[in-house]
Amino acid sequence: MNKVYSTQELIEIVAAEKQACLKGERLKLDVAVSGNPVIDQLITTEGLQKFTAYQDFKASIHEYQHQNQVSGIIWKDLIVKGKTLNYPEVDSHLIALESDLEILKSTKTSMLKFWDQVTKEMDLYLSLSNGTKYEKVNIFDVERIAQRTEWASFLKWENANFLELILQMGWGKPEEAAYKRGRPHSGSEFIHAVNPGNYPIG
Hints:
The chain is of the alpha+beta class and about 200 residues long. It has helices spanning about 5-20, 35-40, 45-70, 100-120, 140-145, 175, and strands spanning about 75-80, 85-90, 125-130, 135, 150-160, 160-170, 185-195. The protein is about 40% helix and about 25% strand.
């Protein structure tokens, strides 16, 4: 019987292949640049070959996940203001299986409770225009967004003088949710919490 690779092993395999592609050790040689002279000046054939080789490899890993039902979920610890939350997240190189989506949906409520506890008295901003603009919002706005989304994830930026906690509330496939190309079936909204008087940087 063939060995089935674990989630962690797949993450390591994809990371190693990405490095090999970036170093030019893997090229998809049959890739042609666009044929448009303006675009062709901006994109090197080798760069496109590296990118395409990596994308093809990643697609084969995603197919392997489906065939062998290998989860794309990793569990992370988030520590904010002395409070700790252990939560699931789909690794950025992998995809979510249907069973993974159920896990994400089942943890949304506890993640939002944690968010409410650690962001009390912080200023909240909704990310607009792919994170180039921010609009100040309140907890009721966040609750409205939460009602129409399926799952949540976090990012944190922190140093001695600054804290920014980002709440991603999404629907559909996490691997497509951060990009407009997934809409309307997959997508997400990002809420940034910062200390009063600060402005989001993430």
